[in-house]
Amino acid sequence: MKKIILIAAFMISSIMIVNAGDHQYTIGEKVSFKSDILNEERTILVYLPATYNLSDAEYPVLYLLDGGYHFHHTSGIVQFLSSNGLIPEMIVVGITNVDRNRDFTPTNLSQRPSSGGAEKFSGFIAEELFPFMERNYRVQSYNVLMGHSLGGTFATYALLNNPEMFSSYISISPYLMYDNNIMVRETQDKLKSKYPEGTSYYMTVGNEPNYFEALDQFEKSIEEKSPKGLDFKYIQMLDDDHGSVPHLSIYNGLLFIYDGWKLDAEKYQEGLAAVDQHYKNLSKKYGYEITTPEYIINLLGYNYLTNEDIENAISVFLENVNRFPNSANVYDSLGEAYEKNGQLDKAETNYAKSVEIAEKKKHPNLKIYQQNLTRVQEK
Question: What is the pTM of this model?
Answer without folding.
Answer: 0.91
